[in-house]
Amino acid sequence: MPEPMDPSAEALLSPDVVTALVNNHRDFLAFIQKRVGHRALAEDILQEAFVRGLHKLGTLEKDESATAWFYRILRNAVIDHHRRRSAVDRKLEAFAAELEQQVAPEGDLLAAVCQCVGTLAGTLKPEYADALRRVEIDGIAVKDYAAEAGITSNNAAVRVFRAREALRKQLTRSCGTCADHGCLDCTCEASPGHCR
Fold first, then answer.
1. What pLDDT is recorded for position 122?
2. Domains of the chain by start residue, with CATH
3. What is the C-alpha to C-alpha distance for residues 170 and 116, in angstroms, rounded to an integer?
């Protein structure tokens, strides 16, 4: 929930300030879009900046231009966005690198994996099932899967991660505690999701 506006800031919210900010909406949006590349993202950042600006009206000097003041808020909002994006990108790259380093399990271990996994993977979204099949079963590298799927390596890493999570949830629903303990000695029936 947004914090209440400072009463001294409310006094600065004159019709002239509001008019100046509203009249420059299109310029503000163009300023942000040029720096983030996407209109929808620019609109989100602008809306957040308007809300943030209302709470920071107390920093607007009486003789200061509301437009210049708001551009400072916009610059800070864009910088914050890029910092958050950089942190997410670094984490995704680290995850993709971790996936690349994984060693394929031995043939005996693969043979022991519960039959439920293969069946339940088919119940996932098609892009998740395909990601798991190509990366986990076929053993191709995430970057190669990304090229094959026409997406970035970061997006491929996220897709594989989400596919694993979705499969884990399906296994837990289907096999219960068997899935929690690794399913290595599971004696599944041929029909999907029936562990004994």
1. 73
2. 7-99 (1.10.1740.10), 104-180 (1.10.10)
3. 10
